[in-house]
Amino acid sequence: MHHHGYLWVGEKARFDTESLRRPAASLAEPTPTSPPEVLERYRQAVAEFPVTDVPPIETALWLMKPPKLIRGTWQEPNDAADWLSLQLTRYAPRFASDQDTARVALHTASAVDRLGRGGDVSLGYYLRRPHFLSLAVVTCSPNRATPDAGCPAR
């Protein structure tokens, strides 16, 4: 078992575009009489979900994304949590709300515990408008939520 780290910073409106965040398999396939917005949402899911860097709606679905989006890989939960802590500290000056060092330490300790049990970690923060920060560490080989998912780095 190992862990992959993912980081995304972008406009909140893009993050809120659901069709970029869901694989097409999770959507009902449109019919010839489907409204244009349903057809477009499905088209986006088919064409863009597999390649976009926008975070997936479910953390484990990062494993379906290209390996170039992986920001780091760690064997130990402590190392992955240290990366999360470093990113939180790095982006803290841009947070829309105050984040103290105690909160960063709490997130780090929680991440070590969750990753050590084979879970995933996903954190999101509003940055100064209109941006959003998404951080994720996904347990790989196997992932509890998607045990059949292969490792994207192989």
Provide structural commentary.
The chain is of the alpha+beta class and 154 residues long. The protein has 5 helices and 4 strands, in the order E-H-H-H-E-H-H-E-E. The chain has helices at 12-15, 18-21, 36-48, 77-91, 101-116; strands spanning 2-11, 72-74, 121-126, 131-140. The chain has a 4-stranded antiparallel sheet. The longest helix is centred in the last third of the chain and has 16 residues, at 101-116. The chain is globular, with a radius of gyration of 17 Å. It starts with a strand and ends in a 14-residue tail after the last strand. The model has no long low-confidence stretch (mean pLDDT 92).
Short structural description:
By secondary structure, the protein is an alpha+beta fold.
Beta-strand content:
15-25%
End-to-end Cα distance, whole Å, is 13 Å
Q: What sort of overall outline do the alpha carbons produce when their principal axes are compared?
A: globular
Q: What is the H/E order?
A: EHHHEHHEE
Sketch the major β-sheet: 4 strands, antiparallel
Radius of gyration: 17 Å
Query: Would you tell me the structural class of the helices and strands?
Result: alpha+beta
Task: Label this structure with key terms.
about 150 residues, about 35% helix, globular, alpha+beta, 4-stranded antiparallel β-sheet, single chain
Blueprint (SSEs and pairs):
Elements: E1 2-11, H1 12-15, H2 18-21, H3 36-48, E2 72-74, H4 77-91, H5 101-116, E3 121-126, E4 131-140
